TrEMBL record:
Pfam name, any one: YaaC
InterPro entries: YaaC-like
This protein's name: YaaC-like Protein
Source taxonomy: Bacteria, Bacillati, Bacillota, Bacilli, Bacillales
Organism: Metabacillus niabensis
Length: 315
């Protein structure tokens, strides 16, 4: 399945075609000198994609010990290609060149990965991506725990169930244009289906569509892309959508940004916390081992999926 996404990306590795597509978009965005910018950026775009793909291909052939670094830098390259579509001047200043997030440099005694946090910086690639690609100018919170981030990825549900005996996601019925909030779902939150639908529409700009059945309320997807649906979380493995089972896990953060934060922290751990990292990989002393390894396998599949969907929607 993953190979299919990389094969689809081949269509975006023609500078002739990409130059025309970028020029059309820049004109639509009323950007001056669109022709010259599209010519300059078509080569950068293709090189970013190729470089990102090479990082991912190498990650598939490398030991777990260095996979976080390869995946993080591969994701960064792929995202830079996406940025060029909506931000032709990238990087317009040195403030967007840093990672845009930071992590605790020294791990405390009895450190657990799920309890670790990353902090979002005011400047850097992460806030720049949030603003340019998703129009998120002010993030809800500035610190994100690894547990909260992993709870945005439905494919992690099995790991949580087995190791922590937690059911983290509620499956949502959906069609091409609608999500259906039934009483079974709303009862979990101790409110009516109508009230839950209203809350979701108020917080996530969905259109509420009343249904003839009292027990079912539908929500119009409103042309929101798969990769940017919140709080509806997409599971690639079963092609279904889920809601978090707890209110504290409702996080208005596109999943590609969730992967950025997780892989940033894992890459920092693998580089600077060598003793802890190899102790984890060689002895598997606690639940961090299956959580991290399962996550990295998911990231290898979902990141190229989201990237190709973004490019196909935009170009």
């Amino acid at each position: 399945m993953t190979q299919q996404y990389w094969e689809r990306l081949l269509s975006y590795q023609s500078t002739q075609t990409i130059q025309k597509r970028l020029d059309n978009i820049y004109q639509h965005l009323h950007i001056n000198n669109s022709n010259q910018l599209s010519y300059d950026n078509c080569y950068r775009f293709v090189y970013f994609l190729k470089h990102g793909e090479n990082f991912f291909m190498q990650a598939n052939q490398s030991p777990h010990a260095i996979q976080p670094m390869l995946l993080f830098y591969g994701l960064s390259q792929l995202i830079k290609a996406c940025l060029l579509i909506l931000d032709p001047e990238y990087p317009s200043s040195s403030t967007v060149l840093s990672h845009g997030v930071s992590s605790r440099k020294r791990k405390k005694q009895h450190y657990l990965f799920l309890n670790d946090e990353v902090k979002v910086q005011r400047n850097g690639l992460f806030p720049h991506i949030a603003t340019k690609l998703y129009n998120i100018k002010h993030l809800e919170i500035e610190k994100y725990s690894m547990d909260l981030l992993l709870r945005q990825i439905p494919e992690m549900n099995e790991v949580y169930q087995f190791h922590l005996e937690k059911e983290l996601f509620l499956k949502i019925n959906s069609s091409q244009h609608e999500f259906v909030i039934t009483e079974d779902i709303s009862n979990h939150f101790h409110i009516s289906s109508k009230r839950l639908a209203e809350i979701l529409c108020e917080n996530y700009a969905f259109e509420h569509l009343p249904n003839t059945k009292d027990s079912v309320v539908t929500i119009n997807k409103n042309s929101v892309f798969k990769y940017n649906l919140n709080p509806f979380l997409y599971c690639l493995e079963d092609d279904c959508y889920y809601l978090p089972s707890t209110k504290d896990a409702f996080l208005n953060l596109p999943e590609i940004l969730v992967h950025y934060l997780l892989l940033y922290n894992l890459s920092m751990i693998s580089r600077y916390e060598t003793e802890w990292w190899y102790d984890l990989l060689l002895t598997a002393p606690n639940n961090d081992y299956p959580f991290i390894l399962r996550y990295m396998e998911i990231a290898k599949k979902k990141i190229p999926f989201y990237i190709i969907n973004f490019l196909e929607d935009m170009l």
